Amino acid sequence: MVNLPPQPRFLLVCGLSAALVSCTGEGQGSSGPTRFVNIQPIQVCDDFGLFCADLATFEEATRKIWAQANLDVSFLAPNRLNASRFLIIDSQDEFAELSFAGGAGAFGRNPLSTRTTGPISLWFVESIFPFEGFDTLGLGWIGQNGVVIDDEILTFNNGVGRLDTVAHEIGHNLGLTHEGFGAGGANNLMTDGGFRNSPSTLDDITPDGANLDRLTDRQIEVVRDSGFTRSRPGLAADSIPAAVSEAPLLADAPTVLSPDALPPVTYLALQPEAAFVDPPPPRQIPNGPAMSFMTAALLAGYLGWQPRRS
Fold first, then answer.
1. Would the pLDDT of 239 be above 90?
2. Res 165: pLDDT
């Protein structure tokens, strides 16, 4: 058999096909070496440790999602924080205190954690911003250390759970927002929770099934350059961590800091993930008498007063 050289038209078609594939922007997994991320789960309980928020790390889903970027995500043994006032996160300032105030290891954080290096602090609480009118399932600082998760993610989607919220919030700490680097589409991991298609099973997470929770090539580049990722496993950082705050907290229940002692939060970017709830049905008007006795008497008197025509 004689092998003929490829025809120009064939080469043109192949070139166009390759260009279309490369322009989609969807990450197909990083070809770079594996990088490592450690997560420190922290279960928040009341002051006596009797009532605690549920731990819902969704570890398998989180690891599968971030495998697209060739990130190896490890969850450390959970810490427990007995502090009733943090069971409900009411404000950004309260979240900032939890994330940054105090010395190394304060509020359940790993002693090695700093603002810009891991392990990433991951608190589980009962509720986040409960008076905002919709359910906030997670919060994460952009490019800085701290994630808080509402344990309502366990009841999401009729009890299946919101499998990708933890991975999504970790993405914020790694430098990603709801709009940049390709986010915004319904199947992208970093799209806001009110508009993102969330998987109901591990089999629908990229690269399988419905290919949900995808990352673009640009998103993969950004997270791999984050200070929270390392070239080696274990807790040792690649570089000397930044200095931590020198304002220690008591080892017992955390005390309320004065406003001057709190870290500045105005320049910190905060990304809440909202799962918008359906609007309540219209309120029905309760059944009752057509008119009160007084109204009926006045109406009867008025009608009786009217002149009658002969």
1. no
2. 95
- CA trace torsion 166, 170, 173, 174 (10° rounding): -160
**What pLDDT, on the 0 to 100 scale, is given for residue 233?**
87
Give the bridge partners for 74, in sequence order: 38
How many whole angstroms separate alpha carbon 165 and alpha carbon 149? 8
Question: pLDDT-based confidence at 2, cuts 50/70/90?
Answer: very low
Amino acid identity at 199:
P
* 128 strand-pairing partners: 89
For residue 304, the surrounding DSSP H or E stretch is: helix 293-305
The rounded distance, in Å, linking the Cα atoms of 13 and 298 is 88
Residue type, 91: S
The 3-state DSSP class for residue 2 equals coil
**DSSP three-state, residue 224:** helix
Q: pLDDT at position 240, please? A: 35
Q: Which pair of structure tokens corresponds to residue 211?
A: 């290919």
Beta strands 135-141 and 147-150 are: antiparallel
CA 200 to chain centre: 17
Q: Comparing C-alpha atoms, which of 91, 92, 95, 111 is closest to residue 103?
A: 111
Q: How many residues does the chain have?
A: 310
* 3-state helix vs strand vs coil in the chain, percent to 5: 25, 20, 55
Query: What is residue 134's predicted lDDT score, i.e. its pLDDT?
Result: 66
User: What are 167's two structure tokens?
Assistant: 């991975």
Q: How would you classify the pairing of strands 127-128 and 88-89?
A: parallel
Render pLDDT for 141-166 as a digit per residue (tens, 0 to 9). 999 999 999 988 988 777 788 999 99
Amino acid at 55: L
Check residues 296 and 186 and name the one with the higher pLDDT. Answer: 186
The position carrying tokens 């427990």 is 80
- Indicate the residue type of 52: C
Asked if 209 contacts 203 with a C-beta cutoff of 8 angstroms, the reply is yes
| The pLDDT value given to residue 264 | 40
